[in-house]
UniProtKB/TrEMBL annotation, chains A, C:
<dbReference type="GO" id="GO:0004152">
    <property type="term" value="F:dihydroorotate dehydrogenase activity"/>
</dbReference>
<feature type="binding site">
    <location>
        <position position="168"/>
    </location>
    <ligand>
        <name>FMN</name>
    </ligand>
</feature>
<feature type="binding site">
    <location>
        <begin position="195"/>
        <end position="196"/>
    </location>
    <ligand>
        <name>substrate</name>
    </ligand>
</feature>
<dbReference type="InterPro" id="IPR001295">
    <property type="entry name" value="Dihydroorotate_DH_CS"/>
</dbReference>
<feature type="binding site">
    <location>
        <position position="220"/>
    </location>
    <ligand>
        <name>FMN</name>
    </ligand>
</feature>
<feature type="binding site">
    <location>
        <begin position="247"/>
        <end position="248"/>
    </location>
    <ligand>
        <name>FMN</name>
    </ligand>
</feature>
<comment type="similarity">
    <text>Belongs to the dihydroorotate dehydrogenase family. Type 1 subfamily.</text>
</comment>
<dbReference type="InterPro" id="IPR049622">
    <property type="entry name" value="Dihydroorotate_DH_I"/>
</dbReference>
<dbReference type="Pfam" id="PF01180">
    <property type="entry name" value="DHO_dh"/>
</dbReference>
TrEMBL record, chains B, D:
<keyword id="KW-0411">Iron-sulfur</keyword>
<comment type="similarity">
    <text>Belongs to the PyrK family.</text>
</comment>
<feature type="domain" description="Dihydroorotate dehydrogenase electron transfer subunit iron-sulphur cluster binding">
    <location>
        <begin position="201"/>
        <end position="241"/>
    </location>
</feature>
<feature type="binding site">
    <location>
        <position position="213"/>
    </location>
    <ligand>
        <name>[2Fe-2S] cluster</name>
    </ligand>
</feature>
<dbReference type="InterPro" id="IPR037117">
    <property type="entry name" value="Dihydroorotate_DH_ele_sf"/>
</dbReference>
<dbReference type="GO" id="GO:0051537">
    <property type="term" value="F:2 iron, 2 sulfur cluster binding"/>
</dbReference>
<feature type="binding site">
    <location>
        <position position="205"/>
    </location>
    <ligand>
        <name>[2Fe-2S] cluster</name>
    </ligand>
</feature>
<dbReference type="GO" id="GO:0050660">
    <property type="term" value="F:flavin adenine dinucleotide binding"/>
</dbReference>
<keyword id="KW-0274">FAD</keyword>
Length: 314, 269, 314, 269
């Protein structure tokens, strides 16, 4: 007996809850060398931008304890190449695509949402709100509830009605629930939590920043406690809103931790660097963990750790 | 270090590498280290031998592994050295543990009837990798150490021009630190012969998903792109790799920050 | 030849830059079993509150990858017992005391600052701004520049003029520099960066939060990239303001990383749990690291990684 | 596991524990594990033996240690079992790996002429620690396993009253999980004899600085305080430890949230 792993992101049903995280699963082709990407719940694309981007200079990544700092800077081919090459390839594989978008202004987000949903193929549009706003001196949209809501309102209006819009939030705000509420009020059908946390490392021998870009985003197991906390707080405040949880998931147990906190799907980022088979392995481990606990449907585990506790004598 | 890995041993072609994971399950070190494959042998169904530098983060853990411990490695990865169909004169240049990647190549070249001359070097004698083997295999083997403790005092690139001349080299193959590859490529250009250089330090995923390992490379179409050395390399044609611009995004690279792209914020993710 | 390790927190000179972090070195008595606490640059006390506090229920701590979550809740004897017992003991040992204070209102902070600086003995007053404000529905003062500034203004006015006031800030704000500026403008002589980051873990077997208090503060090497980033950003913006850097320092190299980023002293927290000799060991390792790099005075290394880089060909 | 640690061996008194660090330098596991000392011996200048449960986080790493590897442990820590000056009848109760802490105590008690009776138990026979040794040392040794695979079927606390009666016990010493200590203390109270219980799971620092290990304990003055089991324990008088309130802050504890203290915010640090 194996568990029923199906889950839903708003009205979109996925065969299982394990996704790649944006920018961590390549175009899908890289991982398809190792396994069939249609076995993923979905592949989340790197954040797509209007123009092609060369990204940031190297070194772009640095190892920190149980974490990785990155300042890749969303290197990518731009929306045109994505639509003519990457997306058709994914659909041809039978894979589902969560398409992440990033723009420096509301207008750019709108343009991206329109272009990407003109044709069918995009299962979910994930709005990367950690992107620096050109209109607010490089401050990320996700730092502010009203800036976030403005983007979401515009994207929701521009995207095809049947493509759910998920807002991807940053954890480094004093009140993530306030930002989440604002996004949902603005029309987001769901939330993706969390993006990387701004961090930095110094190469002590060179006495220089380890990254060419000086600061970068921290990911990996180091940030999992932040992810669990954000998912928990947002699920407690907005129990009906689907959450894609992510941050430091390396094993099926870690995925289960986010599901118990309230995530209905789990995205795997940095783990793909450590293990090219991470996603199918985590899916299998999650399935085993659920079965071992007598849980027959993954959906039953969502938010389970929130149930009121009977005080047990210890 | 030698590991039993039949699937890697079978598919391996010279120039490819393995990406190894250090620290075991739950390790605080999350990135893989790309290491040149030194040798593959048919023993025990197929073994793979690779070399790692003593100062590699995680080297201590690797050195502690004992017989029959299992090791997590992915490979063979990357594009191999192109090997000419017809016999030619090949000069193989290696520095430090980068030399490790050259012996399987030499073997393959010699099988095709090519002549192989080695130039190996390192900071000091104890860091020169494979000097004996190079002497056995190569038509000639020239050694250079910075402290003069073995062979000529100096760098491999100091002796390379003479070797190319003596051997009437048709092509140069090299593996070593970036600065050395840069000089190798420049020397080859001076001789108007092609060079094939394998970059060595690949830390990240090794599989093309993390975007850590990009280098500015000029494509067939003349356009510079930031390409991943783990999947589009580690072997590049020397004249295509823009050594002077490594560590930057050249202004003329595809998608370089310019009029059209979004501005770079102080913390972009 | 060994390096000159002296450093300054405002006008207060310390024999060396290694401090214990608030709440991580006990009263000093616990560590004095292992070494003479006068060998510390200073001992930072747990945050002192007006009344005694029993703290939060157990489990209070949980291990996360390269981190520790804690919800101790500032268990402590209260200011009276501190003044009659802990502080005199520390002074008797010849140790220097950075006294951390925490209150739920501006009035509590003022009362604490007065009481603690009436008599000499306190080297530096560190204001824990991560404490929940009773006046703002439990929102921490440190989440907001004006709430932080209000506390600092009042504490600066209440404390003896010759006791420097350091504001201890939280890293989980979109713009730590803005909070730092507000505190310095309000009279803080220095800044302590960083406090723990709100996080959470779930015991996957019990399907329950691992901490009785549900959420807790994340510390340890997992958060060091956040600490380095905050110290770097604040030092870049306010180069003349002394910073006590902390977050995940386990070794002399880690301490040097924060010093290179701009800290003039480094506080050691979680490492004391892992190794009771952590502080003297880190001090020795730091001294060795400086000497190995030909740096004769620790002060020369402060902020060194900020020097403009000559672009090197790589 | 046996380690050479003369300084610990020399100073050790029964009931004390060692705090061990797992995972080596740079380990992602930052907290120490407090483990009962099973034995100290004069071999090799002084060895210390301790027992760890197979499901201890880090047990895998510990089990992998080999002869001559070094291990980072701090000890002896905590307050030992008080040992009566005069000969009395002592009942020693241990569950699971908690039994390990009792044998040195038995030794010390017997040296002082006390009578020692053992009650040891666990879930199943393979988890009972030191049954043979207890049989050798004790006046009697009663074993209980929950599945009945060794001795009586049931828990140690099921057989304890009979043992106290038969041995005419004057005092009970116990080490094991909290729920078992609670019942032991209750049984002792029924017999109107004192109990000395050693709590077992101490994860944190072991030295009193992290405040992880607090328990509500009634002081001499009748006031309940949240005291650290690593420095003020691990041994407590059974009737002083408020078992029913473990995992809470009793409302009448010193400094409990009340009218005077600051409110508890949703995230306090
Ligand atoms: C994946 C990976 C990650 C690593 N990360 C780190 C890290 O984070 N920190 C760290 O300190 N080390 C790191 N290292 C180690 C470091 O990169 C090298 O391994 C180390 O320098 C030793 O290598 P080597 O013995 O081959 O000597 P190298 O320093 O590589 O040099 C070998 C020889 O190359 C030749 N050479 C060098 N420069 C030139 C030149 N300009 N022209 C001509 N010839 C030249 C010289 O003969 C020199 O002696 C890492 C290594 C790997 C593989
Ligand atoms: C420092 C430390 C940290 C740990 N952290 C974890 C962790 O994070 N997660 C995890 O899964 N495990 C953890 N463990 C392991 C866990 O606490 C025990 O070690 C594990 O339960 C096995 O111990 P045991 O074999 O002694 O059996 P125990 O479960 O301790 O029980 C032994 C016996 O005690 C008796 N007993 C139990 N309850 C009662 C009762 N109410 N009345 C009377 N008798 C009773 C029974 O005879 C029982 O069979 C940790 C252990 C340590 C030492
Ligand atoms: C190299 C790298 C690139 C990333 N690129 C993006 C991106 O383009 N868009 C985005 O929203 N998030 C991006 N992220 C963030 C991840 O999607 C994810 O939110 C974060 O890494 C936390 O998950 P993890 O700990 O499993 O990696 C990137 C992360 C990494 C490490
Ligand atoms: C158990 C524990 C208790 C703490 N108590 C306090 C406190 O009372 N006041 C305070 O300002 N910070 C407190 N902190 C935060 C530390 O002082 C420090 O800022 C943080 O732990 C980061 O440093 P580290 O990673 O070296 O531990 C506490 C941290 C821990 C782990
Ligand atoms: S190493 Fe990850 S993309 Fe090349
Ligand atoms: S275990 Fe740290 S105070 Fe007891």
């Amino acid at each position: 007996m194996s568990a029923d792993m199906r889950t839903r992101l708003s009205h979109v049903e996925l065969p299982n809850p394990i996704l790649t995280a944006a920018g961590c699963g390549g175009s899908g082709r890289e991982l398809s060398v190792f396994y069939d990407v249609s076995r993923l719940g979905a592949l989340t694309t790197p954040s797509i931008t209007l123009a092609p981007r060369a990204g940031r200079p190297t070194p772009r990544t640095a190892e920190t304890p149980s974490g990785v700092l990155n300042a890749v800077g969303a290197q990518g081919p731009g929306v045109d190449a994505f639509l003519t090459s990457d997306l058709p390839w994914l659909l041809q594989q039978g894979a589902r695509a969560v398409v992440s978008i990033a723009g420096g202004s509301v207008a750019e987000f709108v343009e991206l949402a329109k272009r990407l949903t003109e044709q069918p193929g995009v299962s979910v549009l994930e709005v990367n709100l950690s992107w620096p706003s050109m209109e607010d001196r490089g401050r990320p949209f996700a730092a502010d509830a009203s800036a976030s809501a403005e983007v979401i309102t515009a994207v929701r209006a521009a995207a095809r009605f049947d493509v759910p819009v998920f807002a991807k939030l940053a954890p480094d705000v004093p009140d993530v629930v306030a930002i989440a509420r604002a996004c949902v009020a603005a029309g987001a059908e769901g939330l993706s939590l969390i993006n990387t946390v701004p961090g930095m490392a110094i190469d002590v021998d060179a006495a220089r920043p380890a990254l060419a870009a000086v600061t970068g985003g921290l990911s990996g197991p180091a940030v999992r406690p932040l992810a669990v906390r954000c998912v928990w707080q947002v699920h407690a405040a907005l129990p009906g809103v689907p959450i894609v949880g992510m941050g430091g998931v390396m094993t099926g147990r870690d995925a289960l931790e986010l599901i118990l906190a309230g995530a209905c799907a789990v995205a795997v980022g940095t783990a793909n660097f450590q293990d090219p088979f991470a996603c199918p392995r985590i899916l299998r481990e999650l399935e085993e963990a659920l079965t071992a606990r007598g849980i027959e449907r993954a959906a039953e585990a969502i938010g389970l750790a929130h149930r009121p506790s009977e005080r047990q004598p210890r | 270090m030698t590991v039993v890995a039949p699937a890697i041993a079978e598919r391996f072609r010279p120039g490819q590498f393995v990406a190894i994971s250090v620290g075991g399950t739950g390790s605080p070190m999350l990135m893989r280290r790309g290491l040149p494959i030194h040798d593959v042998k048919p023993d025990y169904g197929g073994t793979v031998e690779f070399v790692f530098p003593a100062d590699l983060p995680g080297a201590g853990w690797l050195a502690e592994r004992r017989v029959r411990d299992s090791l997590d490695l992915v490979g063979p990865l990357g594009r191999p050295f192109p090997v000419p169909r017809d016999p030619v004169h090949c000069v193989l240049v290696g520095s430090g543990y980068g030399s490790a990647g050259l012996f399987m190549l030499a073997d393959r070249l010699q099988q095709r009837g090519s002549r192989v001359d080695f130039v190996l070097g390192a900071t000091s004698a104890d860091r020169v990798f494979g000097a004996l083997r190079a002497r056995r295999m190569g038509q000639t083997a020239t050694l250079a150490t910075e402290d003069g403790s073995l062979g000529v005092r100096g760098r491999v690139t100091d002796v390379l021009p003479q070797v190319i001349e003596d051997a009437r080299g048709d092509v140069v193959y090299a593996c070593g630190p970036m600065a050395m590859l840069r000089t190798v490529a420049a020397v080859a250009t001076e001789f108007a012969i092609p060079s094939q250089v394998a970059v060595r330090e690949i830390v990240g995923c090794g599989t093309g998903v993390c975007m850590s390992c990009v280098l500015p490379v000029i494509g067939e179409d003349g356009i510079t792109r930031m390409v991943r050395s783990c999947v589009e390399g580690p072997v590049f044609r020397g004249e295509r790799l823009r050594f002077d611009d490594v560590g930057t995004i050249p202004f003329d690279a595809l998608g370089a920050p310019g009029a059209r792209g979004p501005v770079e914020g102080f913390r972009e993710r």
